[in-house]
């Protein structure tokens, strides 16, 4: 059955505000449900090991497990389904919303869980912290601590997913697969290529940031990448913004000023994003360090949180505010991109400052409402707000802010 789609609110600003409120409500209601389900599941499955550790260690293990389910099932799977595969198969059964969106969400969650089991489970054949039996059913206090480290390192495979798999779409346009093979095989080629790159980055940057190896004499076997994990996160968030914004609101500026030909356009984009991330991080350290916005926390953590808020705003503006202003209001593409950049940087900075002062009050930030579920805190908590509006736009076609009328 075919449907004609109509927007409930013609004004993009009003529609975006309503969508933001809906996403916020979903995050506030949905996260406690997610957290309680995850806690009940793993508390029962890992009961033997959890009974042998103190409350703090048990809480950290449950938190990392809960975070892992969210990162793999929600964030990673969205990148794979929407960006790499272009929502292929979303309408295989029906075009009626929200049924099509709910079906696709379930498939994405299952794919994310399967991806974690396959990738981490394979490595876990030889690496004890990633062994599936240890991760899900630790039997001793030592295994609980080992599993906690494994979950922490495994969860942040999401970072390589973001920095390695999004660019093949945003600035490489799925080169060299686009136009050579039809869907879903172009997505399959992009997925396999970027997964290999993501695994290398994960092994090189994430694992040494979490797992501390020692040689026989007690000497450290690894060097912490960029000096600390917050430094890595700060760099990655700026890097993401610089390669992402041109694709979602910047109308491919500044890359298209150099060339439209691939892979040169993509390579130039990566170079600009990489150099820009290093330079902007250094500048922000100078500007933000004296402000001490997080009361003694590392300045790189402040940078990470603030830039993530700007990224969240950019995605929200693209997906729910229709990249306002459009061509009907501003004819010049360069002017439109600059106006949107100013909007997302200003609003994102304001949002970031508010978030840093209020996240401890929110049920998806650091307030478990006395229910005992795990909260994700300053950085990961922002993704709990981000994913609802991304899913509503891509899986649910902006439902419920659209009306489907039978043709």
From TrEMBL:
Keywords: Membrane, Transmembrane, Transmembrane helix. The keyword Membrane applies. The chain crosses the membrane at residues 12-34, 70-89, 101-127, 156-175, 187-207, 227-245, 266-287, 299-317, 338-356, 376-396. This is Uncharacterized protein. It comes from Clostridium homopropionicum DSM 5847.
């Amino acid at each position: 059955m075919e449907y004609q789609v109509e927007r409930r609110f013609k004004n993009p600003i009003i529609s975006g505000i309503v969508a933001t409120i809906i996403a916020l409500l979903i995050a506030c209601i949905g996260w406690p449900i997610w957290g309680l389900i995850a806690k009940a599941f793993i508390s029962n499955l890992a009961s033997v090991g959890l009974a042998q550790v103190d409350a703090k260690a048990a809480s950290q293990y449950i938190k990392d497990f809960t975070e892992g389910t969210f990162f793999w099932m929600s964030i990673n799977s969205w990148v794979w389904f929407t960006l790499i595969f272009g929502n292929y198969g979303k309408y295989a059964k029906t075009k009626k919303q929200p049924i099509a969106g709910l079906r696709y969400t379930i498939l994405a969650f299952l794919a994310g869980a399967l991806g974690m089991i396959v990738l981490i489970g394979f490595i876990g054949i030889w690496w004890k912290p990633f062994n599936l039996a240890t991760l899900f059913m630790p039997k001793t206090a030592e295994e609980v601590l080992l599993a906690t480290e494994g979950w922490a390192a495994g969860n942040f495979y999401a970072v390589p997913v973001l920095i390695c798999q999004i660019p093949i779409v945003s600035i490489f346009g799925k080169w060299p697969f686009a136009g050579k093979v039809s869907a879903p095989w172009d997505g399959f080629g992009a997925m396999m290529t970027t997964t290999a790159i993501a695994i290398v980055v994960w092994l090189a940057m994430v694992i040494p940031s979490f797992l501390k190896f020692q040689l026989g004499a007690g000497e450290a076997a690894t060097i912490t990448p960029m000096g600390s994990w917050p430094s890595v996160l700060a760099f990655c968030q700026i890097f993401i913004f610089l390669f992402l914004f041109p694709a979602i609101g910047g109308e491919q500026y500044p890359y298209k000023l150099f060339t439209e030909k691939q892979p040169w356009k993509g390579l130039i984009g990566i170079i600009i994003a990489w150099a820009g991330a290093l330079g902007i991080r250094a500048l922000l350290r100078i500007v933000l360090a004296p402000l001490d916005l997080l009361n003694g926390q590392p300045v790189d953590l402040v940078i990470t949180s603030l830039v993530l808020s700007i990224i969240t705003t950019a995605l929200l503006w693209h997906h729910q505010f229709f990249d306002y202003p459009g061509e009907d209001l501003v004819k010049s593409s360069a002017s439109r991109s600059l106006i949107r950049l100013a909007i997302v940087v200003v609003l994102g900075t304001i949002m970031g400052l508010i978030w840093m002062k209020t996240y401890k009050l929110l049920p998806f930030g650091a307030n478990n409402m006395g229910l005992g579920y795990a909260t994700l805190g300053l950085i990961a908590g922002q993704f709990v707000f981000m994913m609802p509006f991304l899913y509503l736009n891509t899986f649910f076609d902006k439902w419920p802010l659209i009306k489907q009328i039978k043709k």
